[in-house]
Amino acid sequence: MQLSDLTHPNQLRNLSIAQLKDLARQLREKHLKTVAATGNGHLGPGLGVVELTLALYKTLDLDRDKVLWDVGHQAYAHKMLTGRYENFHTLRQRAGIAGYLKLTESRFDHWGAGHASTSISAALGMALARDYQGDDHKVVAIIGDGALTGGMALEALNHSGHLPNTNLLVVLNDNEMSISENVGGLNQHLNQLRLSPPMRFITENLENQIRNLPLVGEAVAPEFERIKDSVKYLTVARSKAGVVFEELGFTYLGPVSGHDFEDLLKYLHLAHSLKGPVFLHVVTTKGKGFTAAEQNQVFYHAPPSFDLSTGKIYPATKPTPPKYQDVFAQTLIHLAEHNPKIVGITAAMSTGTGLDKFQARFPERFVDVGIAEQHAVTMAAGMALAGMRPVAAIYSTFLQRAFDQVIHDVCIQNLPVFFCLDRAGVVGEDGPTHHGVFDYAYLRLIPNLVVMAPKDEAELQRMIVTGIDHPGPIAVRYPRGSGLGVPLLAEGIEAVPVGQAEVLRRGGDWLILAIGSMVQPSLQAAQMLHEHGLSCTVVNARFVKPLDLELILPLARTSRLGVITVEEGCLSGGFGSAVLEALNDHGVRVPVYRFGIPDHFVHHAKRPELLAELGLTSAMIAQRILAAMELAPVLIPVVDR
Fold this sequence. Notes:
single chain; alpha/beta; Rossmann fold; 4 domains; seven-stranded mixed sheet; five-stranded parallel sheet; 39% helix
């Protein structure tokens, strides 16, 4: 059977194992060709679950049963099997197939979250709703061993196990990886359990043999559970992990090879036949079927475009400036050479944040907590209280998960934790679950917390010094990818004084207050306006909190036409709102126009495409300023220069 002939996933139910193996080959081929050509998408996670996806869907009725994929970047096979094969080449492109699951994209996408550790909670909710409504369809949650370290997943396991009458199947996709290698006690238990033989048939066969003994039969029942448990403990004496899941209330099955259709189908049928919560442990290989991805699982999690025949990455066509994450890491290492109290903290994102470089230099001062942002923040608070200088490098979108801990454990106690928020602003093809557009708003409302953003990579270096020196909680946010190419600072990097903005250009018509990644486009827009007879003052605000009111208020009072605020963040409660509030509180009555991200979730596309749609390119900023004067159609075209 050809994938292109598959019109409904239920067609898998009638296929032989030989046919499933052929489909697995086709799925990997399409997946590899798509990601290799575009360099845009996740590779290793999806390659590892091809057989699991096919086997699971062969045992289900997808018109009724619900499957929830945790995170979703491993669900490319799912997408191709559920009507998106022909359009799969548009993966993560504007108006194309989303990189994560999306409720509005397919009726088979039953859960659309892009953050880890959510699927078991959602699946339990669906299972309970099913029971309340008197239905009997199956509900399956598929979660990775990395995501299983998240507190929310553990909370959901704890709850699910205490509902013996609620049928729920949790499939653990155990590939020993999240993006980086997994850490923690649970991972160590799983490592041991991977070596243990399946135990369910041992205990079941023992039960059958005992019950068939003459003169014993059912009379042994009161004592049998104790005997069976003893055998079970003996069987997994090398690992307590299986017992842990059993003690939580799950029926534990596995570990099972995730690439053996015979074993997968046998255990899936068994899992579906059992009552109550069932935990099926499936061991897979991340990057399965592509040697380069199997050998370098971290890099090929989401690689740039590469030669499919060799696995080698295509060389860059031209040199690019250092990435912000690398500038952050190099600067932090430089400071840590002279400050033994600096410690780097990540939540399973050492490579993405650049802290893998810090780890290589200072392994004893590096902590990876796994996918557990809440724990990371409170642990950092404990370190700060004990005299260390914790630097928590967390993606902007992921720090949202620890909002309460930032308030309750760090800021109420006014502790010197330094939050470094990578991937701030729109991040492109990852889409709405990963855009870091809310941090200005959700951080600036917290007392005691300083919030800053650099205009370029050299200013990021200075702000890292500011963050290390500051005696209380402080955050810096910076965008994804390469900087502007400005010369980096080497020695004697000076801190940016907290709350100090800078004037980059002076003019009397408009006051443009820009922050972070929007400073350079605002400068370019001011030059465009100058060519049409308008003069603008451009201020690099640097700080959302505290604002430099000594600088801003006089400039606002003397601006002839009004104030423009520009930010790569949500308008609701963001930087522009902070400026509006400050002007109102100080009685400054001037027109204020806020440019930023409106009150809707931003879809996936390349970052330049999104910035153009949002009106945040230099030409669009100039156009919108002129539009405020009703001159835009005449004076300037809507194109970038």
